[in-house]
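Module 6 notes. Inverse folding takes a fixed backbone as the condition and produces residue identities as the prediction. Think of it as a translation problem where the source language is geometry and the target language is the twenty amino acids. Below is one complete input and output pair. Work through it position by position during the lab.
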């Protein structure tokens, strides 16, 4: 499937429980998705599963046959600007894992939330953290040929960065140099009906 008439594709955040291909492909078919987004780890935790190579291959091939672009959404706990060192470390590890898994399943991008410095007094240090954490990841994924890292703004959330907005673009330019960032979410529908949006880890 593909978007018609040049319109933005509409898709689904597909379930993966029971096996990536086994769960996601029938869901995408039933929803007539034009693009899919998946979690490759617990959306509310730090565990980083290795994945199932057989399911990865079936999912990758099935999406290719259907013409479905694939995106990964990283754990909602990711916050590279956190004043808590353990959260920053885990956030970087989670993004590295998502990028590796993205290569395994043929994903075009890994989406993560912009995050927050949490404490206004930590803002400048948080920018340094973001730079120190992201540049190695960007170098690695560029050398490997992808996937892209796509930052999703947290619109309306007080104290959260919003890359792409007129007020925060200089912030992310200072942090990541000349790197390019997406300023909006991937072109899929939000999470499944009934899901809640948990707070980002401090």
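Target side of the pair, the amino acids:
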């Amino acid at each position: 499937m593909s978007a018609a008439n040049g319109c933005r594709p509409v898709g689904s955040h597909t379930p993966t429980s029971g096996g990536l291909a086994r769960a996601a492909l029938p869901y995408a078919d039933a929803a007539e998705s034009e693009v899919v987004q998946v979690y490759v780890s617990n959306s509310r935790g730090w565990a980083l599963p290795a994945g199932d190579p057989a399911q990865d291959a079936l999912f990758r091939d099935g999406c290719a046959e259907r013409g479905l672009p694939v995106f990964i959404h990283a754990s909602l706990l990711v916050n590279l600007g956190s004043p808590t060192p353990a959260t920053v470390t885990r956030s970087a590890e989670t993004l590295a894992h998502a990028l590796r898994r993205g290569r395994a399943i043929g994903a075009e991008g890994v989406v993560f939330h912009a995050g927050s410095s949490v404490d206004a007094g930590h803002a400048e240090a948080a920018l340094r953290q973001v730079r120190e954490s992201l540049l190695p990841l960007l170098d690695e994924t560029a050398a490997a040929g992808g996937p892209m890292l796509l930052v999703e703004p947290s619109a309306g959330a007080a104290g959260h960065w919003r890359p792409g907005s007129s007020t925060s673009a200089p912030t992310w330019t200072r942090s990541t140099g000349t790197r390019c960032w997406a300023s909006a979410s991937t072109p899929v529908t939000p999470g499944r009906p009934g899901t809640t949006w948990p707070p980002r880890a401090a």
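Reference fact for the lab report: The CA atoms of residues 88 and 122 lie 13 Å apart.
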